[in-house]
Amino acid sequence: MRKFSLHSRLKNHYARWNIRLSDPEQFVKFKNRLLTALNEELEDFLLGNKDVDNDFKDIIKAERAESPLVRKSQPYMQPEAPGLGAVSALAAAFGSFKYTSPGFGDTEVYRVFEATTETRELATVTQILFWALERSSAVGSSVLTTKLAQKINDAGKMTKGTAFRVTTRGKQAVVRPNGDPFLDAMIIDCVLEGIERYPKADKPFRQALANFLRGDSAYYRNILDDLRFSLEQLLKSLLRNDKSLENQKDILGAWLKGKGVHVQIRSLYAHLANCFSQYQNNAVKHAEDCSETEVEFMIYLTGTLMRLLLELEQTSSAPEGKPS
Questions:
Q1: Is residue 280 part of a domain?
Q2: DSSP structural state of residue 216
Q3: Does residue 143 sit in the same domain as residue 36?
Q4: Which residues contact 156 (CB under 8 A, 6 or more apart)?
Q5: Which residues have a Cβ under 8 Å from the Cβ of 201 and sit 6 or more positions away?
Q6: Most buried of the four, 5, 75, 160, 161, by CB within 10 Å?
Q7: Rounded distance, CA 245 to CA 228, Å?
Q8: CATH number at residue 300
Q9: Is 306 within 8 Å of 234 (Cβ atoms)?
Q10: Segment 285-291 long-range contacts (CB within 8 Å, at least 24 positions apart)
Q11: Cα 319 from chain centroid?
Q12: Distance separating alpha carbons of residues 307 and 114, to the nearest angstrom
């Protein structure tokens, strides 16, 4: 049974009905989803570890460089003895009120997040919250950081335009802007539309994107594996053979020539595909460390390589997989 994906259903529904939300509406939706994630993951933790809430407050003050509160002499009214009875009665009346147990809404974290009015401000306070969690001795492992990052990223998937993502490495977390909207629309979205016709290439490419959105560096190797496998499977389908990526150069060159691609573009494509393969061998097979920036670049590069193939396959009427 296919897994239910709310963010995918919403995206399709909005597209079907041409629902376009303004940036302010999108921001409010994302902030509310983010606050829900914080409430679910941090309420008990913050109430039990007030030092984290206080540290968050201190970092916020340092970042905003607000005017400090300084003590100075101020006039005040001292009640005379005859009026003490009324004051005591008023105090007694207020003293009769009882309060429910404190919750997330009583924390400094909630107050600051609720007061945000735009995405960059929300991203900054989110980063500061992760710094406060990282500095706390009460956060003994990466579990809390990873779970919170995942929930924030899930909220971002359901919100177009104003969201950001969180990547993690152990207890450390970095809040980053989402990918470039133009590149996402012209490369990634186009590939996702065209690649559906090739299930063996479609599944690993979507899996790579899903793992990247997790924001966890532990998945980087899986992402690179899936990108390579997806491109390899697409080439096998288009060129109608079962050769590995490294052994497609000559056949691919002939295929591109048959589609009318300029010789310099064919040469550039072959060079990029070769560099792609060499990087995969070094970074994946030899387990070398790779940065998030490199992985994101490889996603866009893979998308660019695949988009050209898909566009040529769809628009050209030249024979497939045969030299001309």
A1: yes
A2: B
A3: yes
A4: 30, 163, 164, 165, 178, 213
A5: 195, 230, 231, 233, 234, 237, 306
A6: 160
A7: 8
A8: 1.20.120
A9: yes
A10: 287/221, 290/220, 290/224
A11: 41
A12: 41
Same domain, yes or no: 272 and 311: yes
CA atoms of 219 and 213, how far apart (whole Å): 10
* Residue 1 amino acid letter: M
Q: Could you give the CA distance from residue 147 to residue 168 in angstroms, rounded to a whole number?
A: 10
Q: Token pair of 273, please?
A: 């595909």
Q: Of 147, 123, 44, which Cα lies nearest the Cα of 52?
A: 44
Whether residue 277 is found in the same domain as residue 155: no
User: Residue 173: its pLDDT value, please?
Assistant: 87
Q: Which two tokens stand for residue 313?
A: 């396959």
Query: Which tens digit of pLDDT belongs to each residue from 233-273?
Result: 999 999 999 999 989 999 999 999 999 999 999 999 999 98
Q: Rounded CA gap, 95 and 82, in Å?
A: 21
Rounded to the nearest 5°, which phi and psi values hold at 166?
-120, 130
Number of domains in the chain: 2
Residue 292's pLDDT is: 80
Per the structure, the complete domain to which residue 136 belongs is given by: 13-64+106-177
Tokens 């470039």, residue located: 180
Boundary residue ending a domain (120, 148, 177): 177
Determine the 3-state secondary structure of 59 from DSSP.
helix
Total count of residues recorded for the chain: 324
Does 71 map to a domain? no
Is 98 within the bounds of a domain? no
pLDDT at 180: 59
- Is residue 14 over pLDDT 70? no
Domain boundary (153, 177, 201) is at: 177
Q: How far apart are CA 307 and CA 24, in angstroms?
A: 33
Report how far Cα 227 is from the mean position of its chain's Cα atoms. 18
Q: Which two tokens stand for residue 43?
A: 């309420």
